[in-house]
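Write out this protein's structure.
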Amino acid sequence: MKTYSRRTASKMMAGISAGTILSPMLFSFDSEGIKKRPIPSSGALLPIVGLGTWQSFDVGRNTQSRAPLKEVLTQMKALGGKMIDSSPMYGSSEQVVGDLTQKLHIQDHFFYATKVWTSGRQAGIDQMQSSMRKMKRTQMDLMQIHNLVDWQTQLRTLKAWKEKGTIRYWGITHYTNASHDRLASIIRTEKPDFVQFNYSINQRNAEKRLLGTAKDHGTAVIINRPYDGGALFRKVRGKELPSWCKDLDITSWGQYFLKYILANDAVNCAIPGTSKPHHLIDNMKAGFGKLPKEVERQKMIDFLERL
């Protein structure tokens, strides 16, 4: 199997018309479809690659900027992706997601996740209701407490909203290694449906205890910053994939980084963000085919550290 860098894959996508799925001749998607894992609190299956919207969907009403995002969402649906993660912190992203999914008539296909990011009970309620209007949801799939802001106050509202069906699941989030112990503590005491945090092949602090704590307590895991804020791509710029990647169905560096994460069975979904359809397709491919075993994951770490 020939391997492709993300840059090469991008060139291959050039000129492909809107709504066209990349040829299986180039990116041989597994006919069994994208891998899914159960949400522990319900047993419902969730595809293991989703979409983050920080910066990438903050385009306001600009028609030209929205055009590739429509294609991102179209390709995501076609390839079986479900989770779209947003936040009121992300500018116009919630509104853009709501507008585009409605315009494309695919609004009921996705699993919508957003966050509450404010202090105070009523301020939290007002913000969450605004998010639901923007994303055009009468029921939000997942509402998360963003970066644990006033989490004890917001938690009471989220539990009540889940009880009456306003939301299906509730969760907590953060994006720094320093937050991991606190997240683990809240998981043990409050048993959230979901926890979202940072984890990548070169930022593996979550492997010490947080991933295991989530798994042991039945909390689904969403991974943010899977590319370490772009640091991983900068590290491998101009470097060739090792030949053994073909045995793991890895054809790009993006898949290399994502498959390392997804191979941990405590992870339910990784949410790389993008505004580019060809990157979305490349990301989604990480959810197809083989995932590395533990010995292969260590081999991936060792190779990267030698670069």
